[in-house]
Amino acid sequence: MCEMCKIVVKNIIDEDFVNFKAPAMFVAFPACTFKCGRENCQNRELAAAPDIHIAPEKIAARYAANPISEAVVLGGLDPLDSPDAALRLVHALRKVTNDPVVIYTGYDKENLGDVLELLSFYKNIIVKFGKFVPGQKPHFDPTLGVMLASDNQYAEIIRGKE
After folding, report:
1. In 3D, which of 145, 96, 153, 91 has the Cα closest to residue 119?
2. How far apart are CA 97 and CA 100, in angstroms?
3. pTM score, two decimals?
4. Between 56-64 and 83-94, two packed helices, what is the crossing angle to 10 degrees?
5. Residues of the chain whose pLDDT is less than 70?
6. By the 8 A CB rule, do 78 and 45 touch?
7. What pairs with residue 53 in β-bridges?
8. Using CA atoms, how far apart are residues 20 and 54, in angstroms rounded to an integer?
């Protein structure tokens, strides 16, 4: 496989039970502007982890071959700080499944116009918006089915055009 065809991730967990209401493959992305502050980041160790160069189609095939996971979560540092790679992975996943793809980002919805427009071409995309803010109370998000760390964080289904 050509190197230019690959994306960079930091980790892939085939079965994660923490970030979504159903078992999910978790793909950790490598970039972040540390909107929350580097000292507040629960994933800051990922920045120093070795890069994994992998074709999005290989991740999609790995997901499709797993009988346990029912969704894919893109997280890690911030997938939308690597928007081309995140979109390429979503596109590859849509070739093998219509299961939910959940994207954890620290950005607010208002800052993601172009990326959200591109994501809207796909069905069953969920985006968790909002950076971590210290001192806020955790709350349950019904869309994700999990607790989120700050009051300002919420998830929304991106209505697809597909």
Report:
1. 91
2. 9
3. 0.94
4. 40
5. 1, 160-162
6. no
7. 8
8. 24
